[in-house]
Every structure is written in C-alpha cells, then in structure tokens.
Amino acid sequence: MSTVSLLVKERLLDPVLEVLSTALFGFRALVVALRFPYPGDVIALLSRLLITSIPVVMAVAFAAGAMLTVQAAASLSLIGGGPFSGTIVGLGGVREVFPLLAAAAVAARTGAEFASALGAMRVSQQIDALEVMGIDPFRLLVAPRVWACVLGTPFCVVVSNTTGIVGSFLVGVLQLGIDRGSMWQHLMMSVHIGDLTTGVFKGAILGFLIGVVATREGFETTGGSKGVGRATNRAVVRSMIAVCLASLMLTYVIYGKQVLG
Amino acid sequence: MAFLAEVPRVIAFALSAMAATLRSREALADTAEQALSLTRRCLVPVALVVGPVGAMLAMQSLSLTRMFGVERLLAPLLAATVVRELAPGFSAVMICFQAGAGIAAELGTMRVQEEIDALDVMGLDPRAMVAGPRILGAAITGPILNAVAMLIGIFSAYFAAVHLFDMPQGMFEQTMWDGITITDLWISELKAIVFGLLIGSVSATFGFFTTGGPAGVGRAANRTVVATVILVLFTNYLLNTAVYGATGGGVL
Amino acid sequence: MSESAAMPEGAIVLDHVTKSYGDRVILDDVSCSIPSGQTTVLLGPSGTGKSTLIRLAVGLAAQEKGDVIVLGKNVQSLERKELLKLRQRFGMLFQDGALFGSISVADNIGFPLKHVAKKPAPEVDARVQELLELVGLPGVGGRTPDALSGGQRKRVALARAIALEPEIVFFDEPTSGLDPQTSASIDALINEMQARLGLSFVVITHDVQSAGAIAHQVGMLFGGKLLAYGPKDEVFASTDPTVRGFLDREPNL
Ligand SMILES: Nc1ncnc2c1ncn2[C@@H]1O[C@H](COP(=O)(O)OP(=O)(O)OP(=O)(O)O)[C@@H](O)[C@H]1O
Ligand SMILES: [Mg+2]
Predict the structure, then answer these.
(1) A46 belongs to a structural domain
(2) Which of B70, B233, C176, C251 is in the most buried spot, having the most CB atoms within 10 Å?
(3) pLDDT value for A181
(4) Which domain holds residue A143?
C-alpha cells in the first residue's frame, strides 16, 4: 500500500509538480523578460549561443540532408528515384527534421551551458549574494538568457534549413549524378516561403522553452558541484523533451494532416 | 583545422589509457559503471531525436510513394534509412552532445581542481582510473543506444504510417525486411562501436589535458562537441560509402 | 532570554525563532535584539547555526516559528519587491566570498555601486580604487577572482560588502584564513568604519581575540540555543562552564 502510494507520488505527482513549477518559472521569466533589461548581456549571450551552436548545427544538418537524400534516392530508384529525394528532403526536412536538429543542438550546447553556469553560481552563493544586494537575479541572470535563446534559436533553424538543403543538393548532384536543374526544382517545389517564416516562429517558441527549462534547472540547483552536473544533465534532457513535444505539436497545428504542400 | 594536429596525441593517449584500464580489475568494474551512466544520460535525447525524425520521414515518403502507386516501397525505404543512417548517425551525434561534453567537463574539472594531480601523487595511474573507463564505456554505450535508436526509429515510422496514415499493417511488416538484412544490422552496430570509441577518445583526451581554470573546462567541452560531431559524421559518410557504394546500394 | 525584553528597539530583532533542516533543529527558540550602531559578534562552535541565523535575517532562508524583524520590517512577511528594497540597505560578506567568477575583481566590488546605487562609471571606478586600497589590495582590480589567494578573495568580498556603506553589514567570518596581522587590520577597519559611520555590524567569527577587539555585544550560540548574549564584558566574564570552555579553548572532542 505505502509502496503503491510512493510510486504514485514519484511517477505521477512529482513530474506533474515539476512541470507546473517550470511553467510558473517560465511565466515569471516572461514577465521579467518583457521589460528587456540589459541589452548588452543579451547580445553577449546571444553571440556566445551562435558561436557554440552554429558549427554543430551546420555539420549535423548538412549530414542529415545528405544521408536522407542518398537513402531516399536509392529506395525510390524504381519510380525514377533521384530527384524525388529532393521532395522528401524539401518537405520533411524543412518542416520537421532540420528545425528539430537545430533546436536539439541549442538545447544540448547552450542549454547545458546556461544550466551549469547558473548552477555554479547557485552553489557558490553568487545568486544569494545578488539577492542580498537587493538585485533581482531573475532580471539579471534569467531574463537575458531566455532572450538569447528566443532570438538565437530561429537563426539556428534558418541556418539548419539552408545547410540541409545545400547538403541534399550537393550530394544529389555531385555524388548521385542527378541533374542539377531537376534536383533544385524538386527541392524547391516543396518549400514555400511560408515554411521558412513558420520555421522562424517555431524556432522562437522552441528557444523560449529551452531558455526557461535550462535556466530553471540551473537556478534551482542544490547539492554542491555534484548537483551542478545533475542540473546540467537534467536541463538537456528536459529541454529536449519540451522541444520535441512542442515541435510535433506545432507541426500538427500548423500543417495538420495536409502532408504534401 | 587545429584538431588535425592533435590526432596523434588523441590516439596515443586513448590507447595507453585503454591498455592501462584493461589491466586493472577495479578500472574494468568502473568501465561498466561508466557505460551504464553514459547510456542513461543519452537514452532520452536519442529517443527524442530519432523517434520524431522517423515518423516525419514516414509521413513525407508515404504521400510521395502513394502518388506514384508504389506504397510497398515505403517500408524498405524507412527500414534501410533508419538502420544504415538515422540510428547510428543521430545516436552518435546525441552521444557527442551529452556524453562527449560530459566526459570532457568531468575530466576537465578533475584536472583544474587538481584531483588528477592528487591521484598522481598517491602513485595511482589517473589514465587507468578516470580516462580509460570513460573511453571504453562510450564504446559500449554506442551499440546499446544504436540498437535502441533502430527500434524506436522503425517503430515510430511504422506507427506513423500504419496508425496515422492508414497504410495496411501487413504490407509494412512483410516488405520491411526487403530493405535490410541481418548483415546491415551488424554493420550498423559495428559502426556504433567505432563512433563510441572515437567520441570517448577525443573527449577524454581533451578533458584530461584541460588548461586554464574553470573557463578552460567550458572551452574543452565545447571543442569536444564540435570536433566529435564533425568527426563522427565524416566517418559515417566514409564508412557508408565504402560499404554501400556511392549511390547507397539500391534497396530493391 | 530575559535581557532581550529589556533591550530597546534593535536593528535586528529575533522573536522566538525556530529553524530546522529536515528534522534537525538548528535554531531552537532563539530571541534577541541586535542594537543598531554597534558591532555585535556571534561566537559558537562550527555547525551551530551562525550562518543560518544571518540567512534568516537577510531573508535567504525562512524560519518555521517566530519572527525576524530587521530595520522595523518583518522579513518573512515582505513582498519580494519590498524585500529586495530592504536588502539594498544591507551589505554581506559570505563565508566563502561568493564573488562573481565571470567578472573582474574591480567589477565585483563595483557591482552594487553600479547596479544598486546606479552610480556613473567614473565615480564607481574611483570608489573601487579607494576600496581596494582600504583592504590592502591595490592593483589586483583587473584580475578575475580565481587568480587570487583565499585570503585575498575574502578581502575583495569584504570590500564589496562595504562598498555602499549600508546600514547593516553582515560579516560571515571576515578574518578566517587570514594571517594574524591582516586579521588585525581588518578588525581595525571594522572599528574605524563603525566609529566613523555609526553602522550596525553583525560579525560571525571563531577568533575570540578578534571578537574582543571589535565587539560591543557578544552572543554565543551552542546547540541551537543562545547561551549568552549581552555586552562584551558581561559575556566574557561569564561563569557558565560551556561558555568558559569555548572562550578558554578547552578541547571538546
Ligand atoms: N541547506 C541545508 N540543508 C540541510 N542542512 C543544512 C543546510 N545548511 C546548513 N545546514 C546544517 O545546519 C547547521 C548549521 O549550519 P551553519 O552554516 O549555520 O553553521 P555555522 O554555525 O555557520 O558553522 P561554521 O562555523 O562551520 O560556518 C549545520 O549542521 C549544517 O550542516
Ligand atoms: Mg558558517
């Protein structure tokens, strides 16, 4: 009986409470962030985000574009294959895969960095020191990081989409010997300008989630330097869960079951 | 690239660390523990990337194959993509993100807090005790996560195709194995072991030789992620081209 | 605590305060009134709750029972905004410094000047130089905290705590980890500031000699209770065996 109730508490109640308290944290971050406090900090954090994430985003998106193209072309060879791989990459890539990879990179790189930086500040009492000075650490530390994510993630999504399409095109043309014009046409046929702006919008929402989840884990770190490691890891896992669910939901809301553009 | 200049050092360090670890019973036990903790750290991220990508791929390809009336091509296409590329490639990337950065940060912290020096002074071999178990642990984690990724990738593609887009269930199950063979599965697992070794070696070396205090730890973790992601994706490309040929070795 | 009732309006008043972590009671029904414009020293063995007491006073932790009144405000019942405002009248030296690791020593000291008092940059710079000289560290302003020794970090944290000359300054072990001469200069610095500005200081220390040099009031915490509290001479003349044991450095293990 007591083990059952313990299980219910651990598996059901605690996660729900965690989600609620993260949502509350996010709401507070939103309210504080709307006052847009220190642009200097936001710019520094944003450029740091771009520097750490962009190389990784480009590598992963290029490879993803290339590998999807090779596999799709090989499998579709019966129906004149080749160029249709461009359609698959153009559609599935731009709408879901490339944005998701970009957000995953930001979550893993910048989310981890934010959580460990704030976690280290928490355990060495730097956040307490701010509190005692009467400075709101939320405004000083959390808000600029959330802003950086909201501004930086859409940019990563755009880079990811572009690199993915380039990867697909180059591999199609240079390695698979698909006709240049036909490959380009099939890639572009399925990508609308609307998909790109949707990507930016989606990136901003995913970025907000990453920023909130990562700063919250860092901000509420307990248990010394071991705790900082735990918080960092949790920040990545949890922000990826949030990003993944939100991404699927947004795709569904935006595109519904209408699959071919 | 500056990384190329470090290749000899990475190879020398990783080999000596693994050799030292294989000779020590305690270090081997620690290897198992590392493998477990690395796996736990990466499991959710791997599933969260491979799952949606598999489902999305299924949806897009389904509408295309339907248009041409060749729906039975879908399952082989998905199975081959997941087993050959998606699962090993993306699970390796997530290992770079989570485990690679984690290993570099852990060893880097031990270095700047003088824990590695403390082991040295006690006459213990820090390579065997802290570096080797993580390298070997990553090599064990690779194929475990790849296997999980293959399962999740194929299942989510199956779920999307059959349950969301009404593809006949029997068709998916019957044609799936046209796209892959048991050999493909083994090749995929072998690749994952290679990726795990590469990631473990680079991240352990970068972490172990961290300089420049706490800021240096962050730098080491960042360098590790960039270097391992590029290394793994490039190796994946080379291996796949070598095994399946430049056109991906037609599935049918 | 019968004395506490007799004491007039204090800078900090603890009224039957109980604080536990889990089921371990750290502070057990503690009452006292810490007068303003004086230096009050808290003594007591390691782990008895001295730092905890300060954390309650600045609102970083919450007690289960009793009230903590600081500068006439009940800390626990304040809105967050009001609490932040109240805290701008405090300075605090944390036990481990809590310097901001990512910015320079000078920026650390200038932090409250810039962000709380919103002083213009030249004024901040001048004041930072003055403070660095005051704590005997001219010329280290450009370094980051991790390039300092433990004692140097402590002194930088002290400079940051007093930068705004706030009404109440909390020092959690200002002289631990310092050599006797530097400790003596810190004591002198505290005395000088106290006399010149009439600030209220609350100082935790393990150093009985240093307590003798700076205290007007002394409190002794033992096992969660305030065993002795009052003017320095009274407490130092106490005949309570536990208090005597501590003051006379008798081994206790
Ligand atoms: N966050 C916490 N959770 C649980 N226990 C705590 C926490 N913080 C402090 N304690 C415990 O409360 C007790 C009092 O701690 P406190 O830091 O106030 O001691 P102190 O008197 O300042 O000691 P020292 O002189 O060593 O600094 C200690 O036993 C400590 O282990
Ligand atoms: Mg203390």
Answers:
(1) no
(2) B233
(3) 85
(4) 54-256
